[in-house]
Amino acid sequence: MEDARSGDYFVVKALESGVQVIGLTRGQDTRFHHTEKLDKGEIIIAQFTDHTSAVKIRGKAEVMTKHGRMESGS
Questions:
Q1: More exposed terminus of the chain, fewer Cβ within 10 Å: N or C?
Q2: pTM: predicted TM-score of the whole model, two decimal places
Q3: How far apart are CA 13 and CA 72, in angstroms?
């Protein structure tokens, strides 16, 4: 199994207050496992791991990955 420390990193920057970053689990049943709430201007640096396969973002935010930048909530 892949070493969790080698998972891809991503950055989420809140463009408004109340942005939610929600981690989703791996496996047969996808479930929420962690939520962070960001205020305008705050950033979070996160990583995909053995437990986190996807991230859901609610609100207006800039997302930066090795694949480029995108904006949610536009």
A1: N
A2: 0.81
A3: 10
Strands 9-14 and 43-47, sheet pairing: antiparallel
- The residue length of the chain stands at 74
- Give 52's pLDDT tier (boundaries 50, 70, 90): confident
Looking at residue 1, its amino acid is M
Tell me how crowded residue 12 is: count the other CB atoms within 10 A of its CB: 24
- Beta carbons of 42 and 14 less than 8 angstroms apart: yes
Residue-range domains of the chain with CATH? 4-72 (2.60.40.50)
Partner residues linked to 19 by β-bridges: 38
